[in-house]
Write a structure and sequence with these properties.
Oligomer: single chain
Largest sheet: 5 strands, mixed
Radius of gyration: 26 Å
Helix content: 40-55%
Distance between the termini: 42 Å
Amino acid sequence: MLTPADFLDATKWLSFATLGLAAFTALAFVVGWGFRFRLVGITGFTGVLTVGLLGLSFQPFSRAQIEGAIPYTSVYDSGAAQVVIRVPGTIDAPTLNATLEQAASDQLRSGRLGPPGTVPTIRARTLVHPEPGQTQLLYLGQAVKTQDGLEIEVFDQQLAALADSRS
């Protein structure tokens, strides 16, 4: 996976190419070559690519790996402040806590806004089947992003009900 340092290195080399093309374009104008206007377009496009790579070098592509977290699936994302993830029905409290922290690290970025007064929240849920042909949704916990950081709440009663449904 490419890192921001890789993009910064590519930006450096592409900026040298852009400067070289600019010098070659200036020479084409001085000498009066017929393809000098094409060189202007090529130089401009290379400059745009250089700026794009520079922008990519600022974005952190690496994501935090929280120890103890398990893979999850996003089942609902409002694009603003609400995200629901699905976790397996065999999850326990420490794993749920780590998975909610991982999901918050992955999903709750600074660009995720919402209507004024809403709080970015990730809820974890699973499906249980108490009887054949019957499905029940259990919300097991949530992670809420606050001004002070991240508050993770595990719903112990729901986890106990999940454990009862397994036995």
